[in-house]
Automatic annotation (TrEMBL), chain A:
Residue list for modification 4-aspartylphosphate: D54
Domain Response regulatory: 4-116
Keyword field contains Phosphoprotein: yes
Protein name per the record: DNA-binding NtrC family response regulator
TrEMBL record, chain B:
Protein's UniProt name: Blue-light-activated histidine kinase
Keyword line: ATP-binding, Kinase, Nucleotide-binding, Phosphoprotein, Transferase
Entry-linked Gene3D superfamilies: Histidine kinase-like ATPase, C-terminal domain, PAS domain
Reactions catalysed according to its record: ATP + protein L-histidine = ADP + protein N-phospho-L-histidine
SMART domains, alphabetized: HWE_HK
Domain Signal transduction histidine kinase HWE region: 144-225
A Pfam family annotated for this UniProt entry: HWE_HK
Single GO term (MF): kinase activity
Superkingdom classification of source: Bacteria
PANTHER family noted in UniProt: HISTIDINE KINASE, TWO-COMPONENT SYSTEM SENSOR PROTEIN
Length: 118, 332
């Protein structure tokens, strides 16, 4: 299975960092998307194996995107500086692992591998 | 002592006792052993908008259409008080008909008596609604501040992680990292300390000043006024830093004769567009870079996503020419 990951992050420096970091580790990156609408369009083309979500995006909360991912059975992790992202982005985020922001490299990679069952 | 003197004495004592109660600046009730109101402070009557005559003599639960018949208060008066001499700051949240939803801190003290057999209660009621609201607002603000601090740390982490370390000495890595770090700090300063607006000319001079070691190194040609928003300032500062460090390492600024000219125009097409040109001359022969590093990604992302425009890099033999075209005005 191709290791594809959708990155959803509106802070461009952090988005590039995640992209380069994951590409170096063999992941194929979709995005980064800075807005819910942009990410939804990407999903129309290809479903990733897993997604990394920031909680607040250009066009508002990530909630709608998280719901779309769940419908399509795409697992997601949250990368947020909030200790309880579900208070901002809604209950749908409650069960998802938060890899944190700043994001520690080893933890991020371990969680992603676990999510895709590798 | 005749009867009249005795009456005056008692009356004075009563007036003084009531005066003491009325001087208490918060709502206070004096309750007898059956929880009937013996007296109340002026603050009580004004705060809860009730009449003194309608209050004194009544059972506390019957006051003001039973607005004090609150389960928490019943619990306090019937279960807690009998077993202790004082209860302090017992918090009750309740919808009061006349004043709305309030957070009250109730304190009850048994009235002091020399024989220690008093059954009279002093019940004070402090309205902590606004204090609680302020505390809640402060918590929200602090939470937001913590969130922003962590975001800032994530930015620093991004540049630390993406500044190349391979084939560099520790010192070289540190200098490269700190160069980006300082560009970030300066970008923030410019973007967020001057009420979020700066002129392009000012930004160019400020950002490129450290790279103009000899006066002809970087030349910013005067152009039309272009006011920039915070986000545009952030992106342009970082882009300029990347272009300048690249020029110092490989381009026109790597030799004394080289020069960078920066110029811009505003194009009034359907919407105003900024065309910014970075032109290097007199440097060593240039060739497109073999690898596509963080610096280039940063420039492309910053132009494409933050400025909503496009960037063209022309590795001309005479020197690198970078052209950035981006819409002006509100950029999402």
């Amino acid at each position: 299975m191709r290791k594809t990951v959708l990155i959803v992050e509106d802070e461009f420096l952090i988005a590039i960092d995640l992209k380069l970091l994951l590409e170096r580790c063999g992941w194929c990156v979709l995005g980064p998307a800075a807005a819910v609408e942009e990410a939804l369009e990407l999903l129309d083309d290809e479903l990733p194996a897993v997604a990394i979500l920031d909680v607040t995006l250009r066009d508002g909360s990530v909630t709608r995107l998280a719901e779309a991912l769940r419908e399509r059975h795409v697992p997601f992790v949250v990368a947020s500086a909030y200790s309880r992202p579900e208070l901002i982005g809604g209950e749908i985020l409650a069960g998802a692992p938060n890899v944190g922001k700043p994001t520690e490299e080893h933890r991020l990679l371990a969680v992603l591998e676990q999510m895709v069952g590798a | 002592m005749n009867l009249e003197e005795l009456y005056r004495l008692l009356r004075n004592a009563h007036v003084q006792a009531q005066g003491i109660i009325d001087t208490v600046p918060y709502p206070l009730l004096v309750l007898d052993q059956n929880l009937c109101v013996q007296s109340g402070s002026r603050a009580f009557f004004t705060t809860f908008n009730v009449d003194r005559d309608e209050t004194v003599g009544k059972h506390i639960y019957e006051l003001g259409n039973r607005q004090w018949d609150i389960p928490e208060l019943r619990h306090l008066l019937e279960e807690v008080i009998p077993k202790s001499t004082a209860v302090v700051d017992f918090e009750v949240e309740h919808d009061f008909p006349s004043i709305g939803r309030r957070t009250m801190l109730l304190s009850a003290h048994r009235l002091f008596h020399p024989d220690n057999n008093s059954r009279t209660l002093l019940l004070s009621i402090v309205d902590a609604t606004e204090r609680r609201q302020r505390e809640a607002e402060k918590d929200v603000l602090l939470g937001e501040l913590r969130h922003r601090m962590k975001n800032m740390l994530a930015l620093v982490q991004a540049i630390a992680r993406q500044t190349a370390a391979a084939g560099r000495s520790g010192e070289e890595y540190r200098d490269a990292f700190l160069g980006r770090f300082n560009a970030l700090v300066q970008a923030y300063d410019t973007a967020y300390t001057q009420e979020g607006e700066a002129e392009l000319q000012e930004l160019l001079e400020l950002t490129l000043e450290p790279y103009s070691e000899h006066p002809t190194g970087v030349l910013v040609e005067p152009g039309p006024p272009v006011p920039l928003a915070s986000k545009q300032i952030m992106s342009l500062s970082l882009i300029l830093h990347e272009l300048a460090t690249n020029a110092i390492k490989y381009g026109a600024l790597s030799i004394p004769d080289g020069q960078v000219r920066v110029r811009w125009t505003v194009e009034e097409a359907s919407a105003p567009h900024l065309r910014l040109v970075w032109q290097e001359t007199g440097g060593p022969p240039v060739a497109p870079p073999g690898s596509y590093g963080f610096g280039m990604q940063l420039i492309e992302f910053a132009v494409g996503r933050e400025l909503g425009g496009r960037v063209e890099l022309n590795y001309a033999l005479a020197g690198l020419v970078v052209e950035i075209v981006a819409p002006l005005g509100s950029v999402s």
